[in-house]
């Protein structure tokens, strides 16, 4: 299925990107035409309604990231729809959705607060996970936010206030919020690797075409070393993300194996963002920093996504604690810790 799915996503992504040339900006606007095509193709709720596994979802998310798709597919399928299903809360049968995560300290029956930096807050219903030490409170909120901002790539972000005293709320275990954050971290790793692929492809093409001092840039040894470093970071990130994907396929996102693998992937991918994006822009020269160039669509997404669902430093600290807690830290270095 993966090959057919990959070809389908590639075709849809390319057509959408070509149709939006010159229309990307700050902020990005929700691509309703692309969403309609994806929804008709059954790709907007692939795992929650079509029974696909994380490997198939990774094909969709990575493919759409390569074409800077302005649609919240990860938020809708991997996160919001899944979370609503865990709580058995009614949600629309179609259309985009998003998810919000907030830490709360419940006072009596009231659960209030504000979810910060919610992705695509106006695109559709917001499925909220308000987490405390003892529980995860899940509710479906109307779309909207108190702020109108965007990340470096122009994707909408906003703060969503909530008061669940007058809303249908389902109380679940704290582990649900943990799995939700893990799913989000995994999705961002997949998307960043997709953005890396674009940065690498564009840079390789540029240094092959650009002539300097009578020679193409790609013939200079320093440029070749830079490209080797770039490719090394990309492939390290891909390997770590593939490990996380298949840990989720084999054991589920709620497993210790997936917990370890996603944490390691978020560290590997997050640390690669700076060298990959820096090298790509350096080798492109001045044209690589303009809004009109495709490169910034990839690199700015990678830089923005790296800090979502836990920063690189947060995951690195967590990975270190896993090693310290293990009976034999070497087991953590060479593979996932055994099940308790």
UniProtKB/TrEMBL annotation:
GO terms for cellular component: cytoplasm. GO terms for molecular function: acyl-CoA dehydrogenase activity. InterPro entries: Acyl-CoA_dehydrogenase, AcylCo_DH-like_C, AcylCo_DH/oxidase_C. Coiled coil: none annotated. It comes from the Bacteria. GO terms for biological process: fatty acid beta-oxidation using acyl-CoA dehydrogenase. Keywords: FAD, Flavoprotein, Oxidoreductase. Residues 183-313 form the Acyl-CoA dehydrogenase/oxidase C-terminal domain. This is Acyl-CoA dehydrogenase. It comes from Mycolicibacterium hodleri. The lineage of its organism: Bacteria, Bacillati, Actinomycetota, Actinomycetes, Mycobacteriales.
């Amino acid at each position: 299925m993966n090959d057919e799915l990959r070809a389908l996503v590639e075709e849809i992504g390319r057509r959408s990107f070509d149709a939006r040339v010159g229309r990307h900006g700050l902020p990005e606007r929700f691509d309703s035409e692309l969403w309609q095509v994806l929804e008709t193709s059954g790709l907007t709720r692939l795992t929650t309604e079509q029974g696909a596994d994380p490997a198939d979802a990774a094909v969709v998310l990575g493919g759409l990231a390569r074409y800077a798709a302005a649609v919240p597919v990860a938020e809708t399928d991997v996160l919001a729809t899944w979370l609503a299903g865990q709580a058995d809360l009614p949600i629309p049968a179609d259309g985009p959705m998003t998810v919000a995560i907030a830490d709360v300290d419940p006072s009596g029956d009231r659960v209030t607060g504000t979810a910060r930096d919610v992705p695509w807050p106006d695109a559709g219903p917001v499925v909220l996970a308000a987490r405390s030490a003892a529980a995860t409170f899940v509710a479906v909120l109307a779309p909207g936010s108190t702020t109108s901002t965007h990340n470096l790539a122009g994707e909408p972000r906003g703060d969503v206030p909530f008061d669940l005293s007058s809303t249908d709320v389902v109380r679940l275990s704290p582990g649900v919020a943990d799995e939700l954050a893990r799913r989000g971290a995994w999705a961002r790793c997949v998307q960043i690797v997709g953005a890396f692929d674009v940065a690498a492809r564009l840079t390789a093409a540029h240094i092959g075409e650009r002539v300097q001092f009578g020679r193409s840039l790609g013939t200079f040894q320093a440029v070749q070393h830079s490209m080797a470093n770039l490719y090394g970071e990309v492939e390290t990130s891909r390997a770590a993300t593939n490990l996380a994907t298949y840990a989720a396929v084999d054991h589920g996102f709620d497993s210790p194996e997936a917990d370890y693998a996603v944490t390691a992937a978020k560290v590997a991918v997050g640390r690669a963002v700076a060298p990959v994006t820096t090298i790509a822009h350096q080798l492109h020269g001045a044209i690589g920093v303009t809004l009109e160039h495709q490169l910034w669509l990839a690199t700015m997404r990678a830089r923005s996504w790296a800090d979502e669902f836990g920063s690189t430093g947060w995951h690195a600290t967590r990975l270190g604690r896993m090693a310290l807690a293990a009976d034999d830290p070497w087991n953590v270095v060479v593979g996932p810790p055994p099940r308790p």
